[in-house]
# Entry
Amino acid sequence: MVLNVIDSYNSLNSPSQTVRDPSVTCAKLVTRRGDRKEAVVLSLTKPATIGRDPDRCSYVISDSSVSSVHCKLYAVRSPTGGVIVSCHDMSRNGLYLNEQHIKKTSIILMDGDVLRFPNSLTFTCIHIWKEPRNKVTIFDPTPPAQPAHKKIGPYVVTSQCLGSGSFATVHLALDPAKHRQVACKSIRTKREQDVGQVMKEVRILMTIRHPNINAIYNTEQNRNFIHIFLQLCTGGDLFTYITSHPSLSNHLCEAEAKYIMYQLLRGLSYLHENMISHRDLKPENILLHAPGPYPRILIADFGLARPNAHQETFNVCGTVSYLPPEGVLALDVKHLSYVGMPADCWSAGVILFIMLSGSHPFDYGPMCSSPDWVSHIEESRGTDGTGPSQQYLNMEARLKARIIDGRVDFSRLWDELLDARALVESLLVYKYSLRATVQDALQSRWIVSELEELESLYERRIISALEQA
# Structure
């Protein structure tokens, strides 16, 4: 199996701690009004709104320079088990983050960041729950004691690490010209073939423009690093969103799952029309543009994507839990091949099953931890550290056998979701030539029955927002 040499910025290190009680204070923004100290308090269940209108804002600033609703603040779970604190600017004249002007965008607030309202109050962000300290390869072997910055091209890259893997780290960066934050994905390249693999991802992303695909803004190369500057998403990933959902069963309601699936299918339709297959679709690689219910989602991490996706390939890649039967068989039988686009459709079926049931159709383990067998192989190594443990190999073998067998155990929950079940079954068809395509899925009864409402919501929440940005 070919492992992804370009780690997604949501394939993160294991958490050192998690926020177990959603009502516990995760962060606060502290300010002074005269001789009085005040704080805007955030928890996973308690976002905050700051502005001039007392009927619409939880914290009121009466200054004329402040908009009626100036900004919204959220705390959401991060893939590491910590918390992402974000601020969405909704004002006329923006905000100042550490004295950098930010306008009409969503930003991440790190511990110690200073947020200033124009001609008004200044707040300091204090994280109560903090992220694990990650290795920061483009700065020092360990994070500096105080936040540091590097100028890379037109961007200011901070030492605040959003995530790291074996080959890449992602840092928070600032685009001063556009008054926004971006994600800087820094990939260490040691060999010429590494550069070629990275530039393949870059070339694919540079041709893509779609509201449901993570956009690439720019690239810079210096020394042993290629830096990819990407659209910043502040809502975490879909896996974390599902598993931290308020429902007791850790699954989404049908309406929200349908809206997310509709976006996923639109993004996939765009890719497949351009003969691009993603080949590593999973909830961890689907990012939420901003916090909140019925989120806009973006397909991310194109390190394994393939152009000319209608052609067969012998280069099997991706995550075992989301591979189709032909991909699993090709892992062990080298003369077998598979096709990327039907593989994406199989993965989409697995994702839909997870969203609606809170469980995996073939991996029967609990969904409270990631089913990503590949990115967690390090945790399953044998005692000598040289390879996977026997326990891991046994689990992987059972998972492969279930996928090849192809039978899905639909619980009684699905009795109320017959149209959704029919779509899942059409996507999880063993023979890929008979498997539903993206267009088949978009024309399924489950989607078409509420297509007018889906298109209206998509236009209102996504297209209109993009036009106003």
In short: The two ends are 42 Å apart (CA to CA). The chain has three domains: 25-127, 149-231, 238-462. Residues 350 and 361 are 7 Å apart (CA to CA). Residues 1-19, 368-383 have pLDDT under 50 and may be disordered.
